[in-house]
Amino acid sequence: MFDTLLSSAFSKLASATFMIAVAIHSAALADINSSDQWLQERPDGHAPIGVMGDHTHTEGEFMFSYRYMAMDMEGNRSGKSRVSPSEVLQDYMVSPTRMEMKMHMFGGMYAPSDTITLMAMLPLLELSMDHVTRMGSEFSTRTSGLGDIQISALWKIVEERSHQVHINAGISLPTGNIKERGNTPAGADMKLPYPMQLGSGTFDLRPGITYNGKTTRVSWGAQSLGTLRLGENGEDYTLGDRIEASVWGAVLLSDWLSGSLRGRWHSWDDISGNDSELNPMMVPTAVPTLRGGEIYELGLGFNLLVPNGSLEGLRLAFEVLYPIDQHLDGPQLETDLTYTFGIQRSF
Length: 347
Prior knowledge:
Blueprint: H1 2-30, E1 62-79, E2 81-83, H2 85-88, E3 94-110, E4 116-133, E5 138-146, E6 150-159, E7 163-172, E8 181-184, E9 187-191, E10 203-214, E11 218-230, E12 237-238, E13 242-252, E14 257-268, E15 272-273, E16 293-305, E17 315-346
Antiparallel strand pairs: 1-2, 1-3, 1-17, 3-4, 4-5, 4-6, 6-7, 7-10, 8-9, 10-11, 11-13, 12-15, 13-14, 14-16, 16-17
């Protein structure tokens, strides 16, 4: 029953994706000679909601945002091959079976000038992971709290009639706890493995570059962002560096609604060092050399801009990302689906 429902959902997603792609292509052909300027008043004036730091503001403008993101990870993978719990349990006492990550992200942007936009992001995380032991018993661990706060400056370096480029210069602060504990079959109040911690424990640089372009009915963009860890945290390890790149296109479906397609590539390294409280013989999530990987995802999104009334200018957005290929240093839980809902309002 579940497989039938899942297949139906993916079929509908594929159909909607195809229709958006056709609409973008048709609008682009009809619009190829357009030279309209970029307009923040359009629903596609912002990138898909899963893209952070995608746009800048004019001098004196504020924007507040809220995003809810959920990621579902079920089943283990080593390289490109799926690995059953029984196979994992041949080498470890415990196998993870499923993880769910939920994030509430509160953001603010302010432009002290037309060239510089400042941005801050405050994440609240809820993490849960299900496990099975060699004896066949099941248990779950959960953590929640403040993650690592991000502060960035977006520096506009190119602004032409239909194109814009800005530099993303950010830093992540080690505000997320890396000493989370929980009850496991190994004992009460045990240190939880790396994926269940709320932060990196280090100051992290977040450099990047973003491009946006548009014609009368279509828009497009590309972004590359990195996460570079600085030093070792207080638990004697360093999370792996990360790099991600996105390209997207969007089409106006009406004056107040746009649809988008996005391709995303994300790669991350293994952990350096190790937390001496974790037993790497117990569970693969406690093994520093089994934390790296890369994933390719395809996203379908919609942006809605309230055109008038008391809520004029309010933005609502939704995006779902589905993995089309992933390679993991495993056994490691694979990503099944990620979706983001957001609200944005400028003043």
